[in-house]
Amino acid sequence: xxxxxxxxxxxxxxxxxxxxxxxxxxxxxxxxxxxxxxxxxxxxxxxxxxxxxxxxxxxxxxxxxxxxxxxxxxxxxxxxxxxxxxxxxxxxxxxxxxxxxxxxxxxxxxxxxxxxxxxxxxxxxxxxxxxxxxxxxxxxxxxxxxxxxxxxxxxxxxxxxxxxxxxxxxxxxxxxxxxxxxxxxxxxxxxxxxxxxxxxxxxxxxxxxxxxxxxxxxxxxxxxxxxxxxxxxxxxxxxxxxxxxxxxxxxxxxxxxxxxxxxxxxxxxxxxxxxxxxxxxxxxxxxxxxxxxxxxxxxxxxxxxxxxxxxxxxxxxxxxxxxxxxxxxxxxxxxxxxxxxxxxxxxxxxxxxxxxxxxxxxxxxxxxxxxxxxxxxxxxxxxxxxxxxxxxxxxxxxxxxxxxxxxxxxxxxxxxxxxxxxxxxxxxxxxxxxxxxxxxxxxxxxxxxxxxxxxxxxxxxxxxxxxxxxxxxxxxxxxxxxxxxxxxxxxxxxxxxxxxxxxxxxxxxxxxxxxxxxxxxxxxxxxxxxxxxxxxxxxxxxxxxxxxxxxxxxxxxxxxxxxxxxxxxxxxxxxxxxxxxxxxxxxxxxxxxxxxxxxxxxxxxxxxxxxxxxxxxxxxxxxxxxxxxxxxxxxxxxxxxxxxxxxxxxxxxxxxxxxxxxxxxxxx
Length: 668
Hints:
single chain, alpha+beta, 32-stranded mixed beta sheet, 32 strands
């Protein structure tokens, strides 16, 4: 028996020696290049593209099992030229054989040298990455309903990689449709100390269209059961040698129930310098050339598959925003937001106003007469699903030279109804309050707004915004409006509402209404220009109005001053932008003056205002003048100018008034 066992052991030992010798000798005596055609054919069939191996195939078996393949090429589909879709100068992998039997992966080397990928999009929309991998294979049948999927752990007990490197790589994207070409080259990837139980050091560098990109840091450890435990992340990215981003955090249980907490910090950088390096213009060139020179960002992010929260700060030059946000039900989504801005001067970031391109004598096109194509219909479906609760505060804001403070906005959205209530703004010793609703439950939105103005000083506001001294006084207002649509013409046609503007203890600067109504020549610009700027002081200016389907009606608008009372009534068609208003003066006290004013103090001059918003026309109501108790014939002739003088005076007066009221005019 012992003799039989002895011979059995000798035979087994001999077989082991023969196998070991075969394993060691086979790679040296077998020419694997003979099998390249079969390898290329099988790879081409699997990938659906021609695969060629231009260099040698170098296998190894013991103690490191692996292979090195030189000059590997993956071709393009027909119609994309002769250039390869992808190529690799050298692919090499070496794994220690013996530990594999125990589920331990000890990798000596994983190297990809000189990989190149060229992505091409043709003018007809076809791309060379479509269809890669051949026909889609039918996957395994899903587990029976009610049975959880098989979650067996990976068959890896340990992992150790000596060298993991991708060197001298490049990626090109060629878009023939857009006529653009982009390239990322000099791609270098190195992973150091790769294992399951120690943090992995990663280093990445490349040049994107000539601009440097670097990424480095530590990830892990991933744990003995990858995807089940926490993974720490501490990575820093550097872009263009100007932007530095650091990400620190942890991902918990990324496979079964992922949760992540991440702190992201973007160090201060100049957006102007970044865009200059990219040779790209800013989206909008700010009026202030020193704007956009400091941008920084810091945020803490946390999330799960069904919830996301953020809290952080954003710095823009001298302004800082603090914010917090939460999002759930991502299909809607459901958003809660709070933000606070300390101060900002928006005039610094707005573009410089461009001079008007309208040529002298050119008549602007009347509203609604253009030939522009109809605007594309807006899809409000996302807003119908949106659920939102937002609160925004701004301590100080300057825009169009108007200075405002204590801006507070609350907005809610649900079921296609967006409600802003309130929007409060403190400005010029007063306050503006707005409450509005936008209903987008239908394809055509319906909106309504209530505006309240309390004790705002009109003079400084108009002077700051329009650079005009036109109207002084303290304004109070209450306005309620309703409208349908989202295009200006449609809104003007469907506008309804009512309101009242009231100015107290003020003045109309640039117009002497008392002088205008006392004689026709003064009213229509035929008298000599006074040495001082004319003005009309008043104790009250009241403008009540109503709007029905785009037609605004003035009813009993009046100006009350110590010397006269001016009443106005009529219509303004907002859709056609036309005017039909009558202004009638009435004296409330004895008028005294010198020269011509004294001579013609008894004549009232009602004014008819017509024309358009762009070019209003003024003319005296001569019929009303003739009904007054007139002086003798000779005095009347002096009071009423000749027709040619009247026309000339009307045009001059209208132009002067329009320059004061119009958006393009400035106070000299």
